[in-house]
C-alpha cells in the first residue's frame, strides 16, 4: 500500500489481486482486516507522530468487496486519551464510491524513546522512520 495524507486522513488506493480472495472474486475478510490495520496504524503514526500498536479492531462489512477492483481506503484519528491510546476509524469504498466496510480500532501509542526501551525499534530505524514524518 502507498499512503497519502490530506488535512485529517490517510488515504490509499489499492486493487486486491485474485489470489487473495475468499469465495470466488470476493476479497477474503482477513485481507480486509489487514488493510484496515495498515491504514489506521499509519493514520496514527502520521498524525500523532508516535508508533502505534493495535489493541483491538472491529469491522462492519456492508457490501461485498470484489478482487481486481480499485478501492479507496481511508484512516482517521478520532480520539486520543491520557492512557496513551488513540481511537482510529477506517473506511473502504469501492470504485463507485460506495462504503463497503468500516472499522474502528484502539491503538496503543508509543514514543520513539519507549519503542527503543522496549526494543521494538533500533536507533537507526527510529531515526529513519520518524525524521521524514517530523518534516511532513
Number of helical segments? Answer: 3
Shape: elongated
For the secondary structure, the number of strands is 6
- Proportion of residues in β-strands: 35-45%
- The CATH topology corresponds to Thiol Ester Dehydrase, Chain A
Query: Gyration radius, to the nearest Å?
Result: 16 Å
Report on the structure:
This protein has one domain: Thiol Ester Dehydrase, Chain A (Roll), CATH 3.10.129. About 30% of the residues lie in helices and about 40% in strands. The protein has helices at about 30-50, 110-115, 125-135, and strands at about 5, 10-15, 50-60, 70-80, 85-95, 100-110. The model has no long low-confidence stretch (mean pLDDT about 90).
In short:
With 136 residues, the protein is an alpha+beta fold. Helix content is 29%, strand content 38%. The chain has a six-stranded antiparallel β-sheet.
SSE inventory with pairings:
Elements: E1 4-5, E2 10-15, H1 29-48, E3 51-61, E4 70-81, E5 85-93, E6 99-110, H2 112-117, H3 123-135
Antiparallel strand pairs: 1-2, 2-4, 3-6, 4-5, 5-6
